[in-house]
Amino acid sequence: MAAAAWGRTSCGCLCATAVLFLALAAAVAADDGFITWDDVSIPTAVAASGGGDGVGLGKAAAARSGGGLTTIVVSQDGTGHSRTVQGAVDMVPAGNRRRVKILVRPGIYREKVRVPITKPFVSLIGMGTGRTVITWNSRASDLDPASGHQVGTLNSASVAIEADYFCASHITFENAAPPAPPGAVGQQAVALRLAGDKAMLYRCRVLGTQDTLFDNMGRHYFYNCDIQGSIDFIFGNARSLFQGCTLHAVAMSYGAIAASQRSSPAEDSGFSFVGCRLTGSGMLYLGRAWGRYARVVYSYCDLSGIVVPQGWSDWGDRSRTKTVMFGEYSCKGPGASTGKRVPWSRTLSYEEAQPFLGPSFINGEQWLKL
């Protein structure tokens, strides 16, 4: 089936009042404004208390500061502060001004989770991607029981992050909806939606098929993560750096990795993949021009032979070939041969690739201390 026939529902944008944004700006000003390795690690006070699986997880183990919890433990057996992840998120105060770590004990948490824009500085810390899993199975065509309308792509997300300064580590986000064939309508099924600014994911898994990771908006850093899907399984209008990640395709026939929504040269968005590895099945486009000015770059990546020789798709609109920025630099593997690439993609020089190679692509010097 032609690439242009792969549909997507309208995603829209999030809105908030000016008062709310001012409150959140004050919250950020109260924090040092940087994400560090400590923000994605198990709290010292919890680890020091011991426990059956190497860390203390009881109610008494949670660290406190100023009378409020800075570590919230989620445990399905009732020995933590909440039996559900959403219950733990609900315990974070609106307008939060400091890092709160939500430590999620091993288990399969079958629930939808949302971290609203009013709750920045939240970390979700699992006990290993094979042990801590948040999963749901909504698709875009599913009906909302309250309104009777389809939930759409945006609200199909198993986990939705709308707040700034979010972190996650050692946890799996999954949408377990049945696989969608190319051209299927309403089968978009998002595992994780990121709409906040300045987010970091470390050693996380994001699993699904069509539209797995909705990289909606903001600046994001994915380090040593595994992302699985089939069609446009990384999509959106964020500006994100994927470093040392595994991109695993589960396409039944044709598929695509990245669909950048960038629609104007004034939008500083796009996806940069550095030192990543592509594995899996099907025949994959490296990227598709969802937006007229889509921007996707692969550097130092190991690309398996499942990459289609032409490499890139214009979304069925030839005019986009004049405005997209699709580039490759110093990649290897059977799928890295550029001899049959579409003529409007680019094989970059080091000077051209350099702005995409490190955290400066996402202004990391302003918010990452790693």
From TrEMBL:
Record-listed E.C. numbers: 3.1.1.11
Active site: D232
Pathway: Glycan metabolism; pectin degradation; 2-dehydro-3-deoxy-D-gluconate from pectin: step 1/5
Catalysed reactions, semicolon-separated: [(1->4)-alpha-D-galacturonosyl methyl ester](n) + n H2O = [(1->4)-alpha-D-galacturonosyl](n) + n methanol + n H(+)
Subcellular location: Secreted, Cell wall
Alphabetical GO biological process terms: cell wall modification; pectin catabolic process
Key words of the record: Aspartyl esterase, Cell wall, Hydrolase, Secreted, Signal
Single GO MF descriptor: pectinesterase activity
Enzyme class: hydrolase
Domain Pectinesterase catalytic residues, every copy: 72-364
Signal listed as a keyword: yes
Keyword match Acetylation: no
Extent of the signal sequence: 1-30
Membership in a protein family: Belongs to the pectinesterase family.
Protein's recorded name: Pectinesterase
Organism: Eragrostis curvula (weeping love grass)
